[in-house]
Automatic annotation (TrEMBL):
Residues 13-73 form the HTH tetR-type domain. It comes from Microbispora catharanthi. InterPro entries: Homeodomain-like_sf, HTH-type_TetR-like_transc_reg, HTH_TetR, Tet_transcr_reg_TetR-rel_C_sf, TetR_C_16. The keyword Nucleus does not apply. PROSITE patterns: HTH_TETR_2 (PS50977). It comes from the Bacteria. This is TetR family transcriptional regulator. Residues 36-55 bind DNA. Keywords: DNA-binding. One of its GO terms (molecular function) is DNA-binding transcription factor activity. It holds the Pfam family TetR_N. The keyword DNA-binding applies.
Amino acid sequence: MEGTPTSRAERRRRTEERILSAARAIFAERGFQRTTIRAVAAAAEVDPALVMQYFGSKQELFEQAVRIPSIPPLDGELEPVEELLGRIGMKMGPLPQATLAMMRSMLTHPDAAEEVRGKLDGQVAQLADAIGSGDAELRAALMVSTMLGVTIAHQLLGLTALRGASPERIAETLRPSLRALADG
């Protein structure tokens, strides 16, 4: 039969993916602290015991469901400020559920915080290399923090002024501040 799992392994893989998909959505909506195994199981239409059998703990479920992609490296074609500002549209549009889940969880869950910190430290290092002299690492960290703050204010807090502004307008308004940081 076409479209039906033919093996136990295939049925298991599909069930596991259904659980992970439900977990991503609930972690994105509620964060780590407020997500329960029962809620994930209900959304995946499985028994909570099955979630525990597959993943062992809420922590393990979180780790497998919420993996944020690496931040793309600077490509060097644009200067660092323009490259950061060029990514505004991506940060203002719909984010993947895993990214939203990680953002909601990073302030209350140490593993989420560590993963985000690692990704951002990598971006800070790239920017610091690109802007060079003086206290480049501090200036790069301030630039990345500014962008993170704008993303959080738009995506999680839904600040009216940010929601109403186009990515181009936000970039235009941020440009002098980021340029001042980059230039030292």
